[in-house]
């Protein structure tokens, strides 16, 4: 459970139910009777924990026949009891604050000292005076200069807190990402020290414009929530974090910040959900289990969501030959997921679609991934686009924006190898009638997205954003932390990139160079599914463009780089907060 409260004239409590999705199936052995995929963190402000409805149980039961036997390796996720964290925005003298760690976010400018080696910054000067000069002395010895990512935690007597921490914000802290990082670093310090309560303040909070105080506090809280989260479902032993409360000092109090933190927690719940989906191994998260998780969102938030899960026969009726060609080799059947959000009241003025690539595992098919750097062992992350879409759905289900209808679409399947599988040289036909010569079975994501995009356009939407871990070429071009965006619409580019600047996620617009389409022409079909090595991410985007109605504004986001943090060996939840911000920009 995660509880957030803002201390002012009133307080508001947030609970998170730790429910576990149970997927029932007929087992070949009497030993196995059910699979519990994961405990999903439902984070929302409420008076009581949310409990599963009877409609949710009915959805699970209806889908039971289609969920594959996910018992390979006998792996079942452990249940996690999320830590209960209370956030409070307070105005209090730092020297008087009592707790385990008092942390101060500092820029390089804040760390400037006078000719007597004393801090010039008034906040640091005050703390240092009560510590007898030990803070300035220790920071010099530790060579702490306030650079971004630097942190030092010192146990010094003289304050109400047991420890004092300095967290570097870099040359100037103005971006959302800097404050996210501050919250995460404080959470990491709390985990290392097994601290139960910490406080966060800024050395230069007085220079933050009043209109940015709410977003700054929200970004810090978001970083702390995500920083304290460890996905230990698949470890036999794990240590629970001791952190119980975080006080945010000097950034105001009152109902406005309560609402802002409520929004931050709704988004965090979606990000954590998305992380858990990507982290789950392919022997646990099959296409059927992914579909069940999507249906559970619609069941729990049935006031604003409906779900439609299409099986193989229904996809055949819609002539989705491109998608079904990819899925043909797997023993786990494909599931085409369509969630629809409609506001609880008011007129719908805008219709949007979010489309996510949903390859729960990608072997490469007959063009199997081999050799150093192929990362076949990480191909569980190839459904990162679908995790972003479903994570956004979970967050928006709680936020409930008005005036906008949103369709969440995922063509979930696996790309495997078998006698029934798609072969290099095969010609497949997408649901818009266009034919594709498959010259590489490892360029499969675009084949599934082709039918998903056609389906999205048929919903009568005005704008589509698709997200996919599509090409290694985009990672080569932009590295591991920036996603490439491709769109012919300047208006849509401005909207989505603007949303990413609010969320703190990094996007970079790439060219849609039409002349490169020459490399995608086939002698026997309308097109091939991959061109040469040069401009690989551009030709992939041009391929997707063939399946989008010209009247629909469309953007493709290639998130192959930022979907995974290789250093931390965990999913990032990338894309979710940007999608939520974009949907809200289109709401009334």
UniProtKB/TrEMBL annotation:
**InterPro entries, alphabetically?**
Leucine_aapep/pepB, Macro_dom-like, Peptidase_M17_C, Peptidase_M17_leu_NH2_pept, Peptidase_M17_N
- Signal peptide positions are 1-20
Q: Which reaction does it catalyse?
A: Release of N-terminal proline from a peptide; Release of an N-terminal amino acid, Xaa-|-Yaa-, in which Xaa is preferably Leu, but may be other amino acids including Pro although not Arg or Lys, and Yaa may be Pro. Amino acid amides and methyl esters are also readily hydrolyzed, but rates on arylamides are exceedingly low
Q: Which UniProt keywords apply?
A: Aminopeptidase, Hydrolase, Protease, Signal
Query: What CDD domains does this protein map onto?
Result: Peptidase_M17
Where would I find the Cytosol aminopeptidase domain in this sequence?
440-447
What's a Pfam family this protein contains?
Peptidase_M17_N
Question: Family per UniProt?
Answer: Belongs to the peptidase M17 family.
> How does it associate, per the subunit comment?
Homohexamer (dimer of homotrimers).
NCBIfam families membership: PRK00913.2-3
Q: What is this protein called?
A: Cytosol aminopeptidase domain-containing protein
Q: Give the taxonomic lineage as stored in the record.
A: Eukaryota, Viridiplantae, Streptophyta, Embryophyta, Tracheophyta
